[in-house]
Amino acid sequence: MLTPRPAWGLRILALGLILLLLHPQPSASGPRPNFLLLLADDLGIGDLGCYGNKTLRTPNIDRLAQEGVRLSQHLAAASVCTPSRAAFLTGRYPVRSGMASSTGDRVLQATGVSGGLPANETTFAKILKERGYATGIIGKWHLGLNCASSQDHCHHPLHHGFDSFYGTPLSLMGDCTRFELSEKRAGLERALGLCAGAAAAAAIAMAVGRLMGLAHGTWAPVILCVASAGVLGSLGRAMGPLVQLADCVLMRGQEIVEQPLDLARAAARVLREAEGFLRSHKTGPFLLLVSFLHVHTPLVTTPPFLGRSAHGLYGDNVEELDWMVGRILSRLEQEGLSERTLVYFASDNGGWLEARVGSQQYGGWNGGFRGGKGMGGWEGGIRVPGILRWPGVLPPGHVVPEPTSLMDVFPTVVKLAGGALPQDRVIDGRDLMPLLLGAEPHGGHEFLMHYCETHVHAVRWHQRERGTTWKVHFTTPEFETPGAGACYGRAVCDCTGSQATECSMISSHTLASQIPEEVIMERTKVFTNQAVNQMLL
């Protein structure tokens, strides 16, 4: 056997070191990664091929799961948009930041409302910006805009750590077009129509009474009622355009660039902005949050995707979302950024089961899980897709069955960026990297609270030593019809009141172990009482 001389050995070693320097392999302890966070809106966990769907085509998201880690028990901190997104950005339960409602208005209802993510909350974008990252958000915000005036923009993304914002400060809504399902327009039109009808009926009654000699006096009340009916009727007809003008707004930074928003061009604009951001910041480091308008109603879908799926307009919208994800990932690869970028894909909450008109379903499918959007304790409202890809670092095709949360993104991103977690507040999220890399067999959550508004509807207990996850339900909605798993006839299920029932139910989301129910109930109740008392401090 020929043995290389020492000089040749040194040359080979030097050549290897040069090649390693020219082509460094990424690692969790190496250079700081870029972050591309992709957040869908109202996407059901059962809508994706990588989560078991066989009838919708989602090849790009499925490929992301094949090349990365798929979280099979990934949970939103709330079952509706605004509180879930607040928890995602801050790593904290929304009750801690005041972003969980106690009045029934569970999400921000209009651009002009004064509520929003408080200025003293710390987002991961704020910490990364301080660490030298370029930070951007494209798409939906839905965490408030103004405080005392229409121009102070105190809740604007630029005041929460983002360098750039392109999108809508509220949300995509049925009010933004003449859609069958409307959040505000239909109710306002109906109320004004009833008032106009009442005024017209009063005018007719008074006029008939005058003509028949049953009433005396001037015609002024009749004229006033006729005028009122006309004004109210006109307001009803104008309400749709007025709501659209007020709430369907496109902004770049703090400037309104389109009012109302042209929905037909929204998808193309989101793509253009995302691709432009990746081109402009390819030297890094960067954090980009693409907060898709898909697949929230009114399901605005471009002509190439209409009629393509087997599930109507909703399915078409899901397949267009997947195409958009593919376009963004392709741009990431074209710019040579794939190896240096941690990609995360999720949804803010489960699919909206009540989004239907007649037999036409406009909401998503939550797989085999009961419930949907708006249901704080039922799995269909809070279990969402969760996929992370970082080539060369995270093992491809790996599935993590442990309970994880959207709140975990906060500590994970901050630590990878070399930042420090805030020490002046409780952070409920847990760093995902030890779990993703296999360094730890179990996640950081022994308990997870499941809220509906400010009310604890359920608590999840991960019994690590047995590999079992239990969930104790304290309140459940009254489904319509009973057993349907949804509240048809209402926008979403109520959290409290006559349409919600107190209960003590236990369910298991893994293979059941032999443990008395009273032990499970007592353990979760003790934790719940301690946690609620802590949050009230």
TrEMBL record:
<dbReference type="InterPro" id="IPR000917">
    <property type="entry name" value="Sulfatase_N"/>
</dbReference>
<dbReference type="GO" id="GO:0004065">
    <property type="term" value="F:arylsulfatase activity"/>
</dbReference>
<dbReference type="InterPro" id="IPR017850">
    <property type="entry name" value="Alkaline_phosphatase_core_sf"/>
</dbReference>
<feature type="signal peptide">
    <location>
        <begin position="1"/>
        <end position="29"/>
    </location>
</feature>
<dbReference type="InterPro" id="IPR050738">
    <property type="entry name" value="Sulfatase"/>
</dbReference>
<keyword id="KW-0732">Signal</keyword>
<keyword id="KW-0106">Calcium</keyword>
<dbReference type="InterPro" id="IPR024607">
    <property type="entry name" value="Sulfatase_CS"/>
</dbReference>
<comment type="similarity">
    <text>Belongs to the sulfatase family.</text>
</comment>
<dbReference type="Pfam" id="PF00884">
    <property type="entry name" value="Sulfatase"/>
</dbReference>
<protein>
    <submittedName>
        <fullName>Arylsulfatase L</fullName>
    </submittedName>
</protein>
<keyword id="KW-0378">Hydrolase</keyword>
<dbReference type="GO" id="GO:0046872">
    <property type="term" value="F:metal ion binding"/>
</dbReference>
<dbReference type="Pfam" id="PF14707">
    <property type="entry name" value="Sulfatase_C"/>
</dbReference>
<feature type="domain" description="Sulfatase N-terminal">
    <location>
        <begin position="33"/>
        <end position="418"/>
    </location>
</feature>
<keyword id="KW-0479">Metal-binding</keyword>
